[in-house]
Specification:
The structure is a homodimer of 528-residue chains.
Chain A: H1 13-22, H2 26-37, H3 45-68, H4 77-93, E1 97-101, E2 109-114, E3 122-128, E4 147-149, E5 159-160, E6 174-176, H5 185-199, E7 207-213, H6 223-229, E8 238-241, E9 253-255, E10 257-258, E11 260-269, E12 275-276, H7 277-280, H8 287-296, H9 319-327, H10 332-339, H11 345-348, H12 351-354, E13 359-368, E14 377-378, E15 381-390, H13 396-409, E16 413-415, H14 421-426, E17 430-435, E18 442-443, H15 449-462, E19 467-469, H16 479-484, E20 489-491, E21 507-509, H17 510-524
Parallel strand pairs in A: 3-7, 3-8, 8-20, 9-19, 16-17
Antiparallel strand pairs in A: 1-2, 2-7, 4-5, 4-6, 6-21, 10-18, 11-15, 11-17, 12-14, 13-15
Chain lengths: 528, 528
């Protein structure tokens, strides 16, 4: 078995020069140059990887299915460990030295290292192997029994068997399973890219450190500690974080920042018990209505958050960020069409502009019941769960302080536990506020040379200039890398934007998985 | 077995004259008069009934438990019929001619008739034998396994065995079971009052027609049809409806009206699927927030409904109603203390005044989930269930028209079915509104002579002047009797106000059951 750590370094210098010239000419130009410079002497690594994938699609999918069959809900410790062991062995099979980082009470991190002789720099590849909880009743198929469809189910895709060996797979096919898109796909992509390069005897051009986390979907509670504890082992020149969905236009993208996140649960109280809505209706306070009024006071119909100071700490975008933003295709109308919406917030303002603002999102709302089980009662509590996405400049705790000040200004007494009788009798409006954990937003400068090189590698894999997004709408604990470790970080999402991440019927479009393999092939063989 | 239909009429005239004089002097004065006029000649029926009850408490409770053990959720047809048969047999055992009224697809009505020779008038006694659904997980004991407690559970009551024969029962004890308060208690009270009068050989003074309904808790869908179909059989001079809770002061009350009821379910729509709250937060519309804003637009923080015209059709109270209202003790502060509230709606305005207004009550509110299962999503729908209590003058359909006009004024397109893609793309705000069935409020004049006599009988049973409430907060299809049949109706609730009607841990305070027995003893023997 070939071991990457001992593979001799190839000479890519001339190929790289050729590619640099050809880069803006598109994929066919690249191919032409490759042919011109002589394929026998130096294969194009991306073309090699792609050819390998095409020959091995059924095998790649078989390995992916095997991996997806291991349930990976973050809280399911025994299965989380099975996933970690699976990855460690999969790396081991490729001759890569892999180990489990451990912290008591935490899910393990799988760490794998490829030392490339003579390499002058090191890339860290971050992926997470855990997944969101599953609301099984709402899935078309069981979430850990991967199912292949000819297209997205909502667009009329039908289930079909896995391809037989040698049978080509349509890039529009979708593989449905929890974590298929978020975030096991990059792991399979990495393993496949390594297999392809090994099969063609193409050596890597940099040291690679794989860091596979198992707690991302519960907010990465031990990531900071892991990064501290193993600081020496994980020292790299730049991190590539493979997570999140790709651009809605389906054009590949790289992202240089994320929104941070925090949030809170809020419960407001009426009487100590349910009351008959006839005997006490419009006498007793109704917590469902009180909560509606309180939430409505937080945001207006035009999508503007009305909490004092909510927009005061936003750091403006740099000129390079503004330029990159202007080049991002606007996907608003296409997405509205896809999602059955006539308008989006702030009079259908451009999508990328909305991501530059902190959000206030009601992720759940419950008081008593609706539907068949609804009864003529005045509920005794009403609860909302709210998440807040943060942008550069927002401090999580300070934002929650603003929210709590707002709640107090609406006349509420804020408590941390279920209020006792004395508290209830002393306060007409009581809100129990439970703050979520959270972390701030983060950004990497797009003008750092190594960042620019990664952009070039991704464009080579994509065969066209990629989209460069200053910030992703979603959240990752990127600040641990950018601020705590002081390293450049590029996010390289590969999943289709409509992968139903975090929701039932999560899926990956095969074409997106194929791009992930190409991308990693390009990164592993970047001109040094 | 003695049959009431053939019992000779006793001469109560002189006793009645005595009682009329003594009435305002309280129970002890009544007793003194009774002793003076000679107990041997004419027993006081109420005292007789009371003495019988005291001697038979354990037996009465045993019969009640047996009755409560038959599950009676309105939708449970087989058990509903078991309840009806049980009542029919219980009446038959007392020599009362009883039959089941039937309409295809409806739960039966149990009809029992006592013909009193020489009686010049007939009272109808309405009770319902069905109960609300049970959310078993929230009950301390199974709802159809009656459990006796030394006091209300929330006030530290502890479970105790049923009393042995001869063992006295504390009137503060509570019997917990579905329908113990709402509304099987008056049935047991009627059976016991009849037993007591029969045991003492005291004859009734009026014809009695029992009408026991089995569909009240699902909105009495066939009551109108039953009253029409059996109109000749059910002709009476006045109806006494035994349902609802007693006054919060624990003083007995009679009620001369009810609020009507209607309502609606409303669902507002966001995207066609759950969205990741990071990638789409503050871009995609959030239906939970939209619903909060819509609900908040319907009612202000001072408890005033903001829907145009909502208060425009209220019929003002008559002068007699105003006088009665002024004499009703205000229970607001006591109830606020009991319910752990500092304030109630409209700056803690008097309870009885609030019942003179139509209400708008959010009885349930759901969008995605809260708690452990909450996820970082933008929900795709949000639903509220709302009930509206109506007062005299409000038409149910017209009130819902006002609500829908208001919803439209907030920019919503109202639909009746789940909206299709075209509707979604054409309308930024869509609300599916499902109207509930409903009926109007009703009132009986307090100045009708037979109504005044019932008030006097109840005061005799209570041993003190009773509270006369122009309207109950709750709803009953009273209009069928007052408007359709054009008969006076008096509501005589006996259940304790804190009986957890419609909720888990429903119960009856034994003292309230005892009062019900006395009350029916007094009505059955009212001076003719």
């Amino acid at each position: 078995m070939k071991n990457y750590a001992t593979t001799p370094e190839p000479d890519f210098a001339d190929l790289a020069a050729d590619l640099s010239t050809a880069r803006t000419m598109g994929r066919y130009a690249v191919l032409a140059v490759l042919v011109f410079t002589g394929l026998a002497r130096a294969q194009d690594p991306i073309e090699t990887v792609r050819a390998f994938r095409i020959e091995n699609e059924s095998r790649i999918l078989r390995e992916f299915v095997e991996f997806l069959e291991i349930p990976n809900v973050s809280s399911d410790a025994p299965n989380i460990r099975r996933n970690a062991e699976y990855i460690r062995k999969a790396l081991g099979k490729r001759g890569i030295k892999a180990e489990l980082f451990e912290i008591a009470g935490a899910s393990p991190v799988v760490f794998g290292e490829i030392k490339t002789p003579g390499a002058t720099r090191t890339f860290g590849i971050y992926v997470h192997y855990d997944g969101q909880p599953v609301d099984i009743a709402r899935w078309t198929n069981p979430p850990f029994k991967p199912a292949l469809y000819t297209a997205a189910i909502e667009n009329g895709g039908v289930r079909r068997p896995m391809p037989k060996p040698g049978e080509p797979a349509d890039p529009e096919w979708r593989l449905y399973a929890r974590a298929s898109g978020d975030d096991k796909a990059p792991i399979i992509a990495a393993l496949t890219a390594l297999d392809a390069l090994r099969a063609a005897d193409i050596a890597l051009t940099a040291n690679i450190k794989f860091f596979f986390e198992g707690e991302e979907e519960i907010g990465s509670p031990h990531l900071a500690e892991y990064l501290r504890k193993y600081r020496d082992k994980i020292d790299v020149d730049a991190w590539i974080i493979m997570d999140g969905p790709g651009h809605q236009s389906r054009r590949p993208q790289l992202v240089f920042g994320v929104r941070g996140i925090t949030g809170f649960d809020i419960t407001v109280y009426g009487a100590t018990r349910y009351l008959h809505s006839g005997h006490y209706g419009n006498w007793a306070p109704n917590p469902a209505m009180m909560l509606a009024q309180l939430l409505a006071s937080m945001k207006n119909g035009a999508g503007r958050v009305l909490i004092d100071g909510f927009y005061d700490t936003i750091e403006p975008l740099t000129p390079e960020g503004k330029r990159a933003l202007a080049a991002v295709p606007e996907i608003g109308e296409a997405m509205r069409n896809e999602l059955g919406l006539r308008e989006t917030e702030a009079n259908s303002a451009p999508y990328v502009q909305r991501l530059l603002l902190p959000s206030l999102n009601v992720r759940g709302l419950v008081s008593a019941t609706v539907g068949e089980t609804a009864r003529n009662v005045i509920p005794n509590t009403a609860t909302a769960s709210i998440d807040i996405r943060l942008v550069s400049g927002n401090d999580p705790e300070a934002m929650l302080d603003l929210v709590e000040s707002h709640i107090r200004r609406q006349g509420y007494k804020i408590v941390r536990e279920q209020p006792d009788r004395e508290t209830r009798r002393a306060n007409a409006k009581i809100a129990k506020v439970t703050r979520h954990g959270g972390y701030k937003a983060a950004r990497t400068s797009m003008s750092i040379p190594i960042v620019k090189e990664i952009v070039r590698a991704a464009s080579r894999a994509a065969g066209e200039p990629i989209i460069q997004l200053p910030t992703l709408g979603g959240s990752l604990p990127l600040y641990l890398f950018t601020d705590d470790l002081q390293k450049p970080v590029v996010i390289a999402p590969i999943a289709n934007h409509d992968n139903n991440q975090h929701a039932p019927d999560e899926n990956i479009r095969l074409g997106n998985l194929w791009y992930g393999i190409d991308l990693l092939g390009a990164i592993f063989t970047m001109p040094p």
